[in-house]
Specification:
Layout lengths: L3 E5 L8 E9 L5 E10 L6 E8 L8 H15 L4 E7 L3 H8 L3 E12 L5 H9 L5 E7 L7 H7 L20 H13 L3 E9 L5 E9 L5 E10 L8 H16 L3 E9 L3 H10 L2 E12 L1
Parallel strand pairs: 4-5, 10-11
Antiparallel strand pairs: 1-2, 2-3, 3-4, 5-12, 6-11, 6-12, 7-8, 8-9, 9-10
Helix pairs in contact: 3-6, 4-5
């Protein structure tokens, strides 16, 4: 088929890099596919993140390959060493990436908590029992100024999470970055909720969990990350924070249907927390990586 690849302009630079886009169209200028490439920064300058889609009726006609060739050439020109992409296990995208030289480096398990089935008594039992030496606090939107530095420092809790063979690098977090991330959620009209565990001995943040709620308060919310600093692990803080987060949104958003989360298959600890809180599996995806 006659195919034209058109680069598109994404005028908004995100808080964690910039995004490039291409549109594939046929001889009649009808769109048949698209590709987006995020060029990451802040400790991930070696990475480019790909999202490639082809209309089902136009697959196996070379559209995906042409788009991928364009994306890979751009990534190389920008001195990227890895291109990563995610696809649902067993899907056409999963097979396409494997056939084009990507290797599977990580498996994610997606789960959902139906809020109508949540037992608030069980949540209260988790949240209200004593956790000696720690206390919970929370906020909506951007971190309060008095906690900004310790919140940014607590982000290293995610540095050693199980990632199998994926090469994500170490993300560099500072106050400006955590504020920019919160601002990005606000600008698209959604609500960011954060619960943290505070070390009572010095007021520093020992761990955090983040949850994003759709702007209209309906549908499903999405967990963005839960982490506990290595020196504070072993006290049940992850389950404590997540239970409080669930309890808060259950009361604050009566039209919210559920909460979604994804966890690396090898992250047995977080999977046990989610299972214990009532999350049920929905699907599995594979993270693929192309070495340039």
């Amino acid at each position: 088929m006659s195919l034209r690849i058109t680069p598109l302009t994404d005028p908004a630079r995100g808080p964690h890099g910039r995004r490039l886009a291409w549109l594939a169209s046929d001889a009649d200028s009808i769109p048949v596919g698209s590709a987006f490439l995020r060029l990451l920064d802040g400790g991930q300058e070696h990475l480019a993140e790909l999202d490639l889609r082809v209309h089902p009726a136009e697959r196996r006609k070379g559209v995906g390959s042409r788009l991928l060739d364009t994306v890979v050439a751009t990534a190389r020109d920008d001195a990227r060493r890895r291109v990563i992409a995610q696809a649902e296990a067993g899907s056409p995208g999963d097979h396409f990436l494997a056939a084009r030289g990507f290797r599977k480096v990580l498996t994610f398990r997606y789960t959902r908590l139906a809020l109508a089935e949540v037992d608030t008594t069980v949540l209260a039992g988790i949240v209200e029992r004593p956790y000696p030496g720690y206390r919970l606090t929370s906020w909506q939107g951007t971190v309060p100024d008095d906690l900004a530095r310790t919140f940014a420092a607590s982000r290293r809790a995610m540095d050693d999470m199980p990632m199998d063979d994926a090469e994500y690098g170490t993300v560099a977090w500072d106050v400006d970055r955590v504020r920019a991330a919160a601002k990005a959620v606000e600008q698209r009209g959604d609500h960011l909720h954060t619960v943290v565990a505070i070390d009572a001995s010095n007021g520093s943040i020992a761990g955090f969990t983040e949850l994003v709620i759709p702007g209209n308060g309906a549908g499903d919310g999405q967990h963005y990350g839960t982490g506990v600093l290595p020196e504070h692990r072993g006290h049940g803080l992850g389950r404590w924070m997540k239970a409080e987060s669930i309890r808060q949104v259950h009361g604050d958003y009566p039209d919210l249907d559920g909460l979604l989360t994804d966890t690396a298959d090898s992250n047995a600890h977080m999977r046990r927390i989610n299972d214990g809180l009532g999350y049920t599996p929905t699907h599995t995806t594979h993270q693929h990586q192309l070495d340039l």
